[in-house]
Amino acid sequence: MKRSLKVVLASAFAVATVSAAALFALPAGAEAASFTVTNSWSSGYQAEITVSNPASSAISTWKVELTLPTGSTVGQAWNATLATAGQNVTFTPAGWNASIAGGASTSFGFIVNGAGRPTSCTVNGQACTGVTGSPATSAAGSAPTSAAAPAGASPSATTASPSPSATATASPTATASPTPSAPAGTTPLAINGQLKVCGTNLCNAAGKKIQLRGVSSHGIHWFPSCYTGTALDALATDWNADLFRIAMYVQEGGYESDPSGLTGQVNQLVDMAEARGMYALIDFHVLNPGDPNYNLARAKEFFAAVAARNATKKNVIYEIANEPNGVGWAGIKSYAEQVIPVIRANDPDGIVVVGTRGWSSLGVSEGSSSAEIISNPVNATNIMYAFHFYAASHKDNYRAEVTTAAASLPLFVTEFGTVSASGDGAVDTAGTNAWLDLLDRLKISYANWNFADKSEGSSILKPGACAAGTFAGTSVLTESGQLIRSRIRTADDF
Ligand code: IDC
User: Fold this and answer.
1) How far apart are the first and last CA of the chain?
2) What pLDDT is recorded for position 106?
3) Which among 46, 183, 215, 265 is least buried, having the fewest CB atoms inside 10 angstroms?
């Protein structure tokens, strides 16, 4: 019995190597656990286990135990408490997810250092006894990158799978894609896929209205040590962030000084966000001069390159002008109508966010309003309009404008701060919460300024945090960082 169990597990985990989920069922009425490899690389992989309760009544707690082959260890886990003893790994609830209602489930994730898949699995002390249903197959495009650990890299992968659908998932078409795309599993990207604008909302591939919540980098050319794999891991798994905005300044030593270097850095961050199941907002961070037409040629060159390079990815959103200022709506609209076709020619389905007058205030900070956009919108489809606020500076009149505009325009808060518009000063907790409550209610996506460790009030990280290289948890966070993390890590409504 034990031996046949191992055979079943081995074949099922081999299937998981090439993207599918393998479901192990307990006797009728007991809990079940499904294991999915959500991402893999030559020296390890990321996995997710879903514990489901098929019974009609709730269970009060759960415990999943795995055995890993020698040479493989769990490096970190999230949404579960990890304990290891030799090659035995135990996952128990994180604290808030112990009870599982009848018919419900909970998921947790972990990183394994080493390519070996588990050789045994129990849920609440009972051995997994078989495979139920067919492994969840996925479209060819959702297989992990071909650079991922091949099936043969797993000690448990040598058993041929008896399942026809498993054979299908392992077919060359499933693994030949040169571009890694949405991993299977429960990341924001895997759940939502290619986004599109629907009416005044952001919708996922299935047409459901969604909100993305995440953070903005500071200028990537100033703070590269803040945007490491470890940093993005913390955002994806400790913060549960959906979105990472890549702020690429154009002036102040940015793109105009090093176009190819900055383009490469942006593309690398797109890949890093994608590998962690997050959306990437590519921000052409114009600020001074405020007329984006000053940078029109640079914008066309930059967006042609990043749109062509990232065309097949599902996680990319383009923000073509951070904060136009000192320029009328007609000038911004003209700029947008010249840059958007360049993006569309290379990446037809990517959403484009257009900055608005008065530092993306919908015009309010320059004495205008969203009416100028509503009466004269950008001539393009699948676009949204940017709104920015700083909670200590922008109050009820700005909230009223957003409420009005949201009835007519698809809005995206691509940048906001908890402090004053200077980016510094005290955190306005009440103002920030009022704003975020409004954005939640209207399902408007947002990114907080800024994920860096500069000594200024809007920084998420304490000075020195990036050099120290630890990003998870609250001890590395400023007051602003702690407030924003607490708002972002709550469950998404996808
Ligand atoms: C600020 C940074 C600051 C930096 C400055 C450089 O916080 O460290 O020295 O830019 O220009 C914005 C801009 C954003 C600003 C931010 C705070 O998009 O670039 O960042 N802000 O002033 N709009 C409103 C506020």
Assistant:
1) 41
2) 79
3) 265
Which positions are catalytic? 323, 415
Q: What is the pTM of this model?
A: 0.67
Structure-token match 């993006």, residue found:
343
Q: Which stretches of the chain score pLDDT less than 50? A: 1-28, 130-184
- What is the C-alpha to C-alpha distance for residues 218 and 224, in angstroms, rounded to an integer? 9
Please tell me if the CB atom of residue 283 comes closer than 6 angstroms to any atom of ligand 1.
no
Q: Which atom of ligand 1 is nearest to the CA of 415?
A: 18
Q: Kindly report the protein residue whose alpha carbon is nearest to atom 19 of ligand 1.
A: 287
**Which residues neighbour 164 within 8 Å (Cβ) at sequence distance 6 or greater?**
none
User: Closest ligand 1 atom to the C-alpha of 323?
Assistant: 18
Q: Is the beta carbon of 322 within 6 A of some atom in ligand 1?
A: yes
The one-character DSSP state at 464 is T
Could you identify the atom of ligand 1 that is nearest to the CA of residue 417? 25
Phi and psi angles of residue 330, each rounded to the nearest 5 degrees, phi first: -60, -40
Instruction: Identify the structural domains of the chain with CATH numbers, from first to last.
Output: 6-177 (2.60.40.290), 188-488 (3.20.20.80)
